[in-house]
Structures are given as C-alpha cells and as structure tokens.
C-alpha cells in the first residue's frame, strides 16, 4: 500500500479519517496524499472566467495551502511522507483525477456517522466516491485512536459479482493480518435454506487461497439490522461491502443498500467496487 488519499474539508470528521490514515500509513510505510478541493461560489467562478478576481482566488488558494501545512505538521503525522494538494475542481472529479494521477491504493474519508450518508465529508460527493471509485474506500465514522482491522465482516450473497471485490479485500486483510467473517444475512424477504447457503459459501471460498476466515449465517428482520447486529455480536473492527458503479451498492442489496446502514453503523466501513 504505497499511497493513501485523504480528502479533507478541514472538519473534525476529516481529521478523524486522517488520524486513521496515519495509523495505516505507519503500518505499511505509505505516503499520504492530503487533498483539499477548493470549490468557489458560482459568482466567484464567473468572475474568474472574466479574469476579474484572480487576487481573491489566490487568497483562497493561499489560505488552503497554509491550512494544509498546519495539518501536515501535527504530531500524529510524524515520520510519514505527506504530499499536499489544493485543487480547484468539483470534488468527485478532482478526487478521481488525483487517484489516477498518484496511483492511489486506498481512499480514507470522514463521515458524520449517524447523521447519514448525505452528511459524509463533502456532502453527497462522498457517496459518489464510494459508489464509483475503482479504489477501495475506507469511511471513518468517529475518532479511532487505536484503529484495528483484526476482525473484518464481509456481508454478501457470495455471487460471482463478489469475486473481484473479495479478492481486493483479501489483499487488505493480508496487510493487517485480519480474520475474515463471511456472513450471509437471511431475512423474511430473502430467505434461503441453510443447506443451500452452505453450498454457495463452500463454492465461493474454494476459489480463494485464504484460510483465516469463518463463515456465518445470520437471521434478522432486514439486511441492515443483520449486518450491524452480527458485526456487533463478534465485536468486528470493520464492515466490508461491495459497491456497484451503476446503482450504488451490492447486488444482494437489490440494487441499493439502505442508507440506514451508513446512518447507523458506527464501525468503519470499507467498500470495494464490483
């Protein structure tokens, strides 16, 4: 894991993400790319187009760079190579562009947690990053001074669509010496007999060379509750899921996961694109 991208809006939630990124970086000797997207008011953009407000624009840029400098010198980042970027662009486009340019391995983003996915760092733009990013995205809900990924839950229907995301998860798990918990959530609306789930699970795990895992079947009223309650029951460190570029989240969520999962899951969420 050579480079970790941390987009920041200078909020406390963004700093929570940066602190976790710092822990990951120290463990893997990674570089952190600290990115601030500078979105100017529409009237300022119009003025820039006309060439009338370049001094004001430079002032915004100068202030953003000064803030990044101050953040980069915080004690918890000691010993980590930091690259600071201030970019004038729409967040989703800028984050995607920087991710490709710097060959980012992991994006770490902050979230307001229980306030919902629309309240993620830089608003609904983060939901777009989670949905569309080809790179794994780790969403941090709260301050986590001792981040661990020792126990990771991977909730899925274990279809062929999940093969590639699971392969990416295995690389992450090996870095952290993680134990994986593959869980299939059974609900009244998505019920399968145990013997059928066990057959699907056995077929799925046979495709991969990874032994530090357990398989589970968990019954609950809905998928959201099942993932959260199961994760809490084993005291998982991270919840992992697939995302789908067209519709948002994994196929087994019938096209889109309930926003309630992000609203209510306090644990870090790690996403991999299908």
UniProtKB/TrEMBL annotation:
Residues 1-141, 222-272 form the UspA domain. Belongs to the universal stress protein A family. PANTHER family: STRESS RESPONSE PROTEIN NHAX, UNIVERSAL STRESS PROTEIN UP12. This is Universal stress protein. The lineage of its organism: Bacteria, Pseudomonadati, Bacteroidota, Flavobacteriia, Flavobacteriales.
